[in-house]
Amino acid sequence: MQLFPNTLTSVKGIGPVYCAGILAEIGDIKRFSNQAALAKFSGLAWTEYQSGGFKAANTRMINSGNKYLKYYLLEASNKVRMHDAEFKRYYQIKFKEVPNHQHKRALALTARKLVRLVYCLLSTNRLYTPPTQM
Fold first, then answer.
1. Domain annotation covers residue 88
2. Which of 49, 74, 77, 100 has the fewest CB within 10 Å, making it most exposed?
């Protein structure tokens, strides 16, 4: 891990193990055109069900994708939500939105938020600075 930049370990909750797993599975971040492509590669995207003017509101997660990267991102997002106030707030909002499968849904949406952060940090090569509380 000393050879890699510590951009991901600057996020509280992502330690050297999660960082190494995420970096090993992603490889070169330049392979992905945007964060949505990275999310789809990791399996953190939802199917689109639409026909004519109808578009379904409730859809399932895709079954394809890198299962190891998905695991690392889900586990890391669970730890990050415990240490970062912004991720904790986002998780709690998503948890309260539905009556069933609250934790699983909220964790998947929080992991998708983490994908956006990981893509931004790796593509710009910056350290994470948490937003200030007002």
1. yes
2. 100
59 within 8 A of 126, measured Cβ to Cβ = no
- Are 46 and 37 contacting, i.e. CB atoms less than 8 angstroms apart? no
Whether 9 and 16 have beta carbons less than 8 Å apart is answered as yes
DSSP 18: H
The answer to whether residue 129 sits within a structural domain is no
| pTM for this predicted structure | 0.87
Total count of domains within the chain? 1
